[in-house]
Amino acid sequence: QAVVTQEPSLTVSPGGTVTLTCSSSTGAVTSGYYPNWFQQKPGQAPKALIYSTNTKHSWTPARFSGSLLGGKAALTLSGVQPEDEAVYYCLLYYSAAYWVFGGGTKLTVL
Amino acid sequence: QVQLVESGGGVVQPGESLRLSCAASGFTFSRYGMNWVRQAPGKGLEWVAVIWYDGSNKYYTDSVKGRFTVSRDNSKNTLYLQMNSLRAEDTAVYYCAREGQVVGSYLDYWGQGTVVNVSS
User: Fold this and answer.
1) With a cut of 70, which residues of chain B have pLDDT below it?
2) Which of B3, B47, B62, B64 to mutate to test the interface with A (most CBs of A within 10 A)?
3) B18 CB-near residues (< 8 Å, 6+ apart)
4) Span A51-79, mean pLDDT?
């Protein structure tokens, strides 16, 4: 099965902008992989943020956005808040059958 | 509101079996695919299995093929994961997650998880 890769960690200042990326061992990530993004805080279940590359769930704050950048899926946080400190996971769909998570990006707001 | 409640976790020895359940409420269960996702202590999320809304298709991650079986009872609004021949590396929090009505679209709602500990 495929391997999905994310940056292990990133640091951003409050109010700043940061982009997290998600790549696939099979090649360029396209909309056909239906990229999903999740946020997980310590001791909590994951929370869905983005699906189908750039569609927000009804509860997703406007400062989160998804896109495709340079053959990767991307999650951009604009105007970062202290409460955005968390681990972010991407999820890709393969062969009309199975999902694969990335290893997660630990985002520090400092 | 959508609720997913996992149960059935516990401490078992290597080689033993365990069945997890996920009770769903607040939506029409029979219209949605359902997934199991796990997270080993201090590690990332790992997708485990999916079952389509009607049970017609099931897919698994390679590491559990032949050992785990996902099933559902739409009359009871319940998802199951039968785990056989358990190994230490199966130790994790197991979450159930709802998939969109279109297969492969999204995972939106998650349960709070149930802990499985495989240890001798």
Assistant:
1) none
2) B47
3) B8, B9, B10, B12, B83, B86, B116
4) 97
